[in-house]
Amino acid sequence: MLNDQKKQKFILRQQAMMCVELYIDVALSGNDDIARESRSVIGALVDFRGEIPRSSGFSGFCKLAGKIDRMKKFGDTHLMACYILRSLSDRQHDAVVCNQTYRGRTKVAIDPFVPERRIEILWDDKRCADTLDCTVGTFRQRIVDGYTRMERWLSESQEGLKKRPKPLHSQS
Questions:
Q1: What pTM does this model have?
Q2: In contact, 65 and 3? CB cutoff 8 Å
Q3: Where are the domains of the chain?
Q4: Cβ of 88: how many Cβ atoms within 10 Å?
């Protein structure tokens, strides 16, 4: 019984970590967003100061299929991850995202005037806590609280799916 509980806890933690990864994927996709890619008539008018430019005659090739594939990039799983992360308090949200994005990674800065001089900055607990204006202990506790809340949410939603009544089959 205890082994099953540990296994379930491990699975819930993995699912919560995946939610954070999916959320970060959505949050960082802003620059590659398909909505920012196409040019509108009003945008062309602004860019060319009131005059729509003439066509060059080059039609290129159809990029529609690629755009449609990228539109499918974020499905229900990504949306659910965003919903779960937004259910956290702001402090828990920031700590969990900072933990997943920066903690344990090294940032390399290069002096533009002396390219041979590299500065390596390790994102340890102290640096993450300083970024979030809290102590190391508070940073760690926010991570624990955030993951605990996500795991509870995931567990309750899975239990709800198990208890859902079976659909009635139509009889002919």
A1: 0.66
A2: no
A3: 2-34+66-156
A4: 20
